[in-house]
Design goal:
This protein has 3 helices and 18 strands. With 276 residues, the protein is mainly β. The protein starts with 32 loop residues before the first helix and ends with a strand.
């Protein structure tokens, strides 16, 4: 596709994985059955903080339930973060405290409970997601829980000897949301030096089933490798000829999730610069 100077050429370079599923990664690769089973689990880290006049010896607890309402974790939280391993799926996490240790009377029942729902988007043979949950108990009021996820991981774009960590913007979940990403991509600090024909690889850090590249002038093919973790394109001549209009790139990535069409879609953005 040829673009005219003064307009922003957009090449929608997308490629589904051609029916390739995560289970079809060749046997004998570095990802054996044992590792695949381990990578099918994500992690929940949990910590708690008391603010105000709580009884000395107050005992906080964490409770995790699966989508069916079954308890999968119920334990006392001690000084350091509590970390649990969970299969991909939907859960609820709750916290409460008791003002005593050991044997407690009826007046020492659990109190100040709070909870949140969350989803682990880790897929088989994908990188493990970690969700950090922090509960705060303040002055005898119901506690609050904040959740923070490291999924999807930050991509890394590289060409030749140069590399750039790509900034993540908005993300959405197609199975639950309208999932409209903004037209303007986030801006990454730093630039990636390229010239005509430069081979640019975007390492996503997690398997994707679709990737869309916006803002580049000219056409080409975006090729996947490593089970959809890495995607590669070559910089077209039109991009360098109209560089002022074609250097700001946006990525829309649809990651694989736990089940068909249950991935996460995320927006990223980075800038090219003319290299020697």
């Amino acid at each position: 596709m040829t673009t005219r100077r003064g307009t922003l050429g957009i090449a929608a370079l997308s490629l589904a994985l051609g029916g390739l599923t995560l289970a079809e990664v060749p046997a004998g690769s570095a990802h054996g059955p044992a590792r695949a089973a381990a990578e099918a689990h994500g992690r929940l880290t949990f910590n708690v903080r008391f603010v105000g006049p709580y009884v000395q010896g107050s005992v906080p607890f964490i409770l995790v339930r699966n989508a069916g309402g079954d308890d999968v974790v119920r334990r006392q939280v001690k000084g350091a973060d509590t970390t649990v391993s969970l299969p991909a799926g939907r859960y609820s996490v709750a916290s409460y405290w008791r003002p005593c240790q050991g044997r407690c009377g009826p007046e020492d029942l659990a109190t100040d409970r709070c909870g949140r729902h969350f989803t682990l988007h880790t897929a088989r043979r994908g990188d493990s997601e970690t969700i950090a949950a922090s509960a705060v108990f303040a002055n005898g009021e119901p506690c609050t829980i904040k959740l923070d996820s490291d999924y999807p991981p930050l991509p890394r774009a590289r060409t030749g000897g140069a590399a750039l960590d790509v900034k993540r913007g908005v993300l959405c979940r197609p199975q639950r949301d309208a999932c409209e990403l903004p037209a303007r991509a986030p801006r990454t600090k730093g630039t990636l030096p390229v010239k005509t024909g430069s081979r640019v690889t975007v390492a996503l850090g997690a398997p994707a089933r679709r990737i869309l590249l916006k803002g580049i002038c000219g056409g080409g093919t975006f090729l996947p490798s490593a089970g959809g973790r890495n995607w590669t394109f070559r910089v077209p001549a039109d991009t360098m000829a109209h560089f002022g209009d074609c250097r700001d790139l946006g990525l829309e990535v649809t990651y694989k999730g736990p089940g068909i069409r249950k991935g996460v879609r995320a927006a990223f953005g980075f800038r090219l610069r003319a290299g020697r």
